[in-house]
């Protein structure tokens, strides 16, 4: 029998996003009990815009002390976004431990850095993505650090992904982990399970610590921290993993197989463990990621939340979108065509060319309805890009409108579309790591079915076909077969981000 919640204790989950940092108390079976949150502070240069890890560290350690007074904390695990890495010294007790400040990945790059980096970045499989904007990729951040601050760089001991940085701060043990390095870091070739050529070419191998599984127990929190912040003596520290990979793991731990998960928010992020590698096309926003077991995950990224805001406006009306308004837009063939922001998404060359066709929406609710319809179309396009998998699971903020799941299901009538209304998938997945070795059955998960979609499917099918044909026709360059995964040429620069 699985251990009870009390026997397994409560898991402290640190979730480091680009905008906010959250500290959660989560049950061993993935239910969030309490959340503390602060904005992720960024400081100006020199030498570059960077995250204030000192301030975050004080907040994290103090927050753990607060949670420990209210919950029986047994383990700590961190998640983080794929563009976050930290170059550190050899002492986690020395200030924030860094050898150089952690680069804000939205910091613009000096042109000389970008020009020098591109020829070294390797094949698509070495990168796992197109070469994206600003300082997105960890390898490019390391290149910039080494070029700008060679002396400080030479004194560094380790380069750690964000989750592993926090595990090191708490435990003193440095590790590498495949799902974080496999999240468009440009450091790790997921398909062939080796470091990208740039690691050897630039002499970075000495900075890469030994690999460990995301769920590996690194030992107790350092005694000095435990005393200072009144943490439990046997508070264990786990390695941690990439945030979106942990959300995928949540469904794996619940016993799902052969599924595509689509998470929605600022980004629409799709993952499938069944997508063939030769299907991946970097020009269509597709990526090669890693699950927490080191296996390839086909991925797709498009900036759905940002696109929604462009179409709906910054202050859309409250309340759900009425289905009759969407049907009226469909009947009038009003379309929002990609892409309104600086991200091409699945339509190469479309960035900045988004527009709405006639007859244009007249009211604020009509604009919101068109935005929801547009994002459902983008979601279906993400699913079709990934290909394999009869089952589709939706989660994230778009589900706040009940019509979103129905529209997606109507656009994918040959698939089983279900949705998860829980808003804390990353935290749940991270907490479930603590039971990876001992779990004897599926972790609990509640998925809702989408009902009564036949009438909506009949209404939307012709509209969707016209939308897709128009969107692809207007995108440049013209779509080709998905063979980019085999290319050895450096990626075309694209405006995208993890």
Can you describe this structure in just a few lines?
This protein has 498 residues and is an alpha+beta fold. It has helices at residues 5-8, 53-70, 111-117, 124-127, 138-148, 150-155, 162-171, 178-181, 197-201, 223-229, 243-253, 304-312, 323-332, 364-386, 402-411, 425-432, 454-474, and strands at residues 10-16, 20-27, 32-39, 42-43, 50-51, 73-80, 85-88, 158-161, 188-189, 194-195, 217-220, 236-238, 241-242, 259-264, 268-272, 286-290, 296-302, 336-337, 355-356, 391-396, 416-419, 448-449. It is built from 17 helices and 22 strands.
Number of strand segments: 22
> Globular, elongated, flat, extended or rod-shaped: what is the shape?
globular
Number of helical regions = 17
How many structural domains can be distinguished in the coordinates?
A: 2
CATH topology type of the largest domain: Nucleotidyltransferase, domain 5
End-to-end span in angstroms?
A: 39 Å
Pfam families: FGGY_C_2, FGGY_N
Domain Carbohydrate kinase FGGY N-terminal: 134-245
Region (Disordered): 473-498
Biased composition (Basic and acidic residues): 483-492
Characteristic terms for this protein:
498 residues; alpha+beta; Nucleotidyltransferase, domain 5; 2 domains; seven-stranded mixed β-sheet; 19% strand; globular; disordered C terminus
